[in-house]
Every structure is written in structure tokens, then in C-alpha cells.
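User: Working on a comparison across species. This one is Adenine phosphoribosyltransferase from Nocardioides oleivorans. Can you predict its structure so I can line it up against the others?
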Amino acid sequence: MPDRRAAQEALTRLTVDVPDWPEPGVTFKDITPVLADHHAFSAVVEALADAGRDDHGNVVVDKVVGMEARGFILAAPVALALGIGFVPVRKAGKLPREAHAVSYSLEYGEATLEVHRDAIAPGERVLLIDDVLATGGTVAATRELVEACGGVATGVAVLMELSFLDPRTVTGDLPISTLLTI
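Assistant: Here's the predicted structure for Adenine phosphoribosyltransferase from Nocardioides oleivorans:
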């Protein structure tokens, strides 16, 4: 629990709100100060990695998926902390080989995500990692991609959840671990 408390404190202290970015009415949560602080970044990574462990500390997932772009920054070190592989979920047109694709709505537009068809083996248990859970569309689309590969999305871990956008109505029964609820 000390990592979780340290992560929550760091997020509260270091995250910078940027109003009206990337467009009017949106408040962007800038986590770059968290990433620039070694102790804060370490605490955040360890707290997120806990979502991939059971109550005894055993790793219970086979892969960690990170959603473009800030999810990559968090998911890769989480995968290393868990001793498992990392799979990037990219924006459309960024992957060089055959991929599954899913289009979805987000808080200020629409997007398409892709994953290589062979990135997740059938039956592999997958933890999804992202920075902010806003409308839930990115998580729902990523879950679809994991399932298209034959994998099983076991949960999602995020730094922050924007509860006022009610994202859990979109993510369904997927367990969500969030370090900070706004």
C-alpha cells in the first residue's frame, strides 16, 4: 500500500491541468511532471503493476497492453515490473503488419486503434494500462482488440478516472484499478 499512497500523492501534487487543450472545453491532465520525477514515476509504475498481481504478490497476467500514446509510457515499465511482455495498441496506420482494428468515440472525437493479429496468443490473460479513463471508449475498444486476438482482458489499471464522464457504463464488467478518481 505504500506505493499506492505515494503514487496518489505524486499524481495530486505533480499533475498539471491544462484548460481548453486540445480543444475548448477539454481540461488535459499533463502527467509529464510525474514522469520526470524518478520517485513519483517509480511509485506510479509499482502501483499500476499491483493490478497484475494477486493478494500474495503472484503475477496473474501474461501480457500488458498499453494504449497509444501515454499508455505506452506506463505499460512498458509495468510489464518489466511484472516480468512479462508488453503489447502496444496503436492508432490506425502505425503498425507494419496485419492488424485487428476497432473504431470508437472519445471525449472529443473519434479514433481507430489497432493491434498486431499475433501480438496476443489465444487464452493469454491481459492487463490493460492507460493514463486517464475518461469516456471508457479507449478501454472498450482495446478490450475488443484483445478478444479479437483470442486473449482475455482481466482488468485495466489507470492513473486517473474522470468519474464525471461515467466511463464505467462503457467498460462493462472489466475490473478497473484507478490511482486517483476525479
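For your comparison, note: Strands lie at 16-19, 27-30, 63-67, 85-91, 99-106, 109-116, 125-133, 152-161, 176-181.

User: Helpful, thanks.
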